[in-house]
């Protein structure tokens, strides 16, 4: 795929997650689970806890440090192996911030104002949002392009940011008459690229939703998971035999998609088993598969969190490996743009 789109570039996968709160089932199914699965294929895999993105909205400093470690623990508990992949936190590799500045001169202000995540997060009083929140997609493009990454696995909500990354790469290559940055492919795949709130099938499951019942946290215990699924909003109809029958039933569709993604089945396969049954039968089965898949991850996360010094060591080593890839690409970018480099 990326070989045909980006001839001449090493196949390389990059993705990131913000340490801005506890991680959810949405993060796991849309991102973490897939990060682990992509290891050891033909591509190098580089995974990042994007702490500099998190500070675009206020973070308590001590809590941020702790959540950065917790996000790293979630990567590893989900199967990201720091020996196979490069795992680090963004702020330890200065190439991200430097390249983001260079991209601030390439990206247009109008592109930034069009971002739906900016509109959502800035809310009504957008004049009072941090400048970083507006510039956020240029930093995200820098995360990806500092490694000349050819593919980025993410959930559906990041599609617009990846299009902007492609726009920045295209404009840079065009403005400077080079083929320096690849046109990165989004990898938005699987049954659960957009996991919805358990309370409202029209809203994304999010760590920032005020209702804890709306989401399954990766730190929830088996009882909490089962209870949240039992209370999840649904409708009164029995389940249909195929996904077409779920078109106007967003809550039902969401639970089917979650089941399918957890069980590594297609939504149609799940429906063929539950056709004609109501949620009284389906929800306990969903709770069972959710607990079976998530409990080992929760337990491993807790184990990693027992040794924060080891997490810090892993992130530090990862940052060194990341910098070794990113620095020559950043230097070349500066040369292309005419920024003088003469330091010995
Ligand atoms: P964030 O928590 O915003 O840093 O998101 C990290 C990753 O998780 C990104 O790839 C998102 O697209 C993905 N993600 C977040 N929430 C969801 C969700 N509800 N469904 C699917 N993927 C999600
Ligand atoms: N913007 C992403 C999110 O909110 C996180 C992110 C930052 C990211 N940089 C990235 C994802 C680079 C993929 C690649 O979910």
TrEMBL record:
Motif 'HIGH' region: chain residues: 19-27
Residue numbers covered by motif 'KMSKS' region: 204-208
Keywords associated with the record: Aminoacyl-tRNA synthetase, ATP-binding, Cytoplasm, Ligase, Nucleotide-binding, Protein biosynthesis
Any Pfam family the entry gives: tRNA-synt_1b
Binding site for ATP: 18-20, 26-27, 155-157, 195, 204-208
Compartments, record wording: Cytoplasm
InterPro entries: aa-tRNA-synth_I_CS (IPR001412), aa-tRNA-synth_Ic (IPR002305), Rossmann-like_a/b/a_fold (IPR014729), Trp-tRNA-ligase (IPR002306), Trp-tRNA-ligase_bac-type (IPR024109), Trp-tRNA_synthetase (IPR050203)
Molecular function per GO: tryptophan-tRNA ligase activity
CDD domains: TrpRS_core
Catalytic activity, reaction form: tRNA(Trp) + L-tryptophan + ATP = L-tryptophyl-tRNA(Trp) + AMP + diphosphate + H(+)
Function recorded in the entry: Catalyzes the attachment of tryptophan to tRNA(Trp).
Record text on subunit structure and interactions: Homodimer.
Protein name listed in UniProt: Tryptophan--tRNA ligase
Protein's organism: Paracoccus onchidii
């Amino acid at each position: 795929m990326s070989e045909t789109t980006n001839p001449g570039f090493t196949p390389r996968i990059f993705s990131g997650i913000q340490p801005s709160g506890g991680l959810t089932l949405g993060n796991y199914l849309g991102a973490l689970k897939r990060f682990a699965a992509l290891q050891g294929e033909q591509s190098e895999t580089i995974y990042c806890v994007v702490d500099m993105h998190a500070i675009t909205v206020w973070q308590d400093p001590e809590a941020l440090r702790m959540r950065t470690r917790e996000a790293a623990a979630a990567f590893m508990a989900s199967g990201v192996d720091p020996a196979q992949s490069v795992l680090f936190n963004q702020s330890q590799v200065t190439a991200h911030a430097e390249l983001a500045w260079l991209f601030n001169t390439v990206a247009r202000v109008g592109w930034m104002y069009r971002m739906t995540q900016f509109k959502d997060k800035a809310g009504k009083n957008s004049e009072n949002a941090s400048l970083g929140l507006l510039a956020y997609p240029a930093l995200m493009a820098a995360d990806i392009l500092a490694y000349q990454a050819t593919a980025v696995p993410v959930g559906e909500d990041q599609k617009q940011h990846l299009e902007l990354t492609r726009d920045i790469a295209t404009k840079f290559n065009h403005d400077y008459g080079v083929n320096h940055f690849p046109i990165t492919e989004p990898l938005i795949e699987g049954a659960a690229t957009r996991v919805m709130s358990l309370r409202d099938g029209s809203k994304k499951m999010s760590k920032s939703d005020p209702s804890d019942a709306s989401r399954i946290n990766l730190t929830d215990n088996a009882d909490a998971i089962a209870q949240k699924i039992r209370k999840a909003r649904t409708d009164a109809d029995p389940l249909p035999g195929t996904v077409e029958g779920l078109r106007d039933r967003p809550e039902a569709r969401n639970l089917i998609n979650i089941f399918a993604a957890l069980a590594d089945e297609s939504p149609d396969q799940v429906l063929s088993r539950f056709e004609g049954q109501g949620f009284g039968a389906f929800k306990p089965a969903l709770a069972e598969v959710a607990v079976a898949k998530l409990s080992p991850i929760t337990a491993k996360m807790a184990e990693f969190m027992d040794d924060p010094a080891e997490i810090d060591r892993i992130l530090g080593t990862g940052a060194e490996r990341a910098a070794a890839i990113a620095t020559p690409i950043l230097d070349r970018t500066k040369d292309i743009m005419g920024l003088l480099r003469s330091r010995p």
